[in-house]
Amino acid sequence: MPRVFSGVKPSGDFHLGTYVGALRQWVAEQERNDALYCVVDLHALTEEIDPAYLRTMSFNAAVNLLAVGLDPEVATIFVQSHVAEHARLAWLLECTATMGELRRMTQFKAKAHGQETVRVGLFTYPALMAADILLYQADRVPVGDDQRQHLELTREIAQRFNARYGELFVVPEAAVPAIGARVMDLQHPDRKMSKSVDSPLGTIGVLDDPAQIDRKVKKAVTDTDGEMRYDPEKKPGLSNLLALMAVATQSTPEEVAARYTRYGDLKRDLAEALAELLRPVRERAAVLVDEPDTVHDVLRAGAERARAIASATYARAAEAMGLLS
Ligand code: AQP
Fold this sequence. Notes:
This protein is mainly alpha-helical. The protein folds into 2 domains: 3-180 and 291-320, Rossmann fold, CATH 3.40.50.620; 210-286, Tyrosyl-Transfer RNA Synthetase (Orthogonal Bundle), CATH 1.10.240. The chain contains 13 helices and 5 strands. Helix 3 crosses helix 13, helix 4 crosses helix 7 (120-134) and helix 7 (120-134) packs across helix 8 (148-165).
């Protein structure tokens, strides 16, 4: 069975972008693959985060993973820091990656831009992400569009390692959805919807109720020419809404555009469709938050299984690089 791995950073509440760009695929992939999904808490440390908040968000992340429909009987769900080999392999891979490669990462440039101090971990983040993936010998990595470049670097690191130290790592493929790979902020359609950017009206949380969704969609920024057309470059706000409607109704943005003439009608139907799309997630999460033991049991079992795979890969990589076993 092909293996699938992906991770999500518990740096804040999950939003529609997380769901549409990644989690939806994770659920679809779990049936036909050996799937491992991880709450990547070590990645959340790359920027300032309150310890108590991180703990809460990591637990909430696990709740949300179960609430979106991941089945712990089928997929392995765990927390990154519970498997020490992530940090251990990251060091080995940092010692194969170059400053030039890491400096090219656009996410680093964007996050470091304008900051007085930048954590070393933010810079080396892509090596840790490569370790996350390569530890499990993943064939496919379902991610949103913003992670493409990191995936490309992971492939380069794996190929270079294999060439220098012997064939060890599977070189993974990115699996990016055709529609919804980059959900934009509803108030600032020139930038992606993000957990850590404060944009209360521009961000739809996966647990938002129908009234909140309705308010945010109705206030979404579009344009003034009134032309119903999918054109992400010239009409980013409207195109974002068309893409979301396409995801919610399993069609294409162009088909959605053909069904509407007025922006107001599209917004009304989109708000309803999104509320319906997220309804089961909201309902399951409401039950799960009151069952912390169930959630912790899932994470404990997941870490155990993940550790078995990760420790075998790490041992081979360490030995290949010359560390005494
Ligand atoms: N806006 C988005 N559209 C489509 N996909 C998205 N993803 C994130 N935002 C969007 C995808 O969700 C998965 C988990 O991402 P993450 O939470 O680990 O990190 P991120 O990509 O850095 O997400 P955020 O929300 O922007 O977090 P912060 O603000 O903390 O950096 C990934 O597959 C990602 O592509």
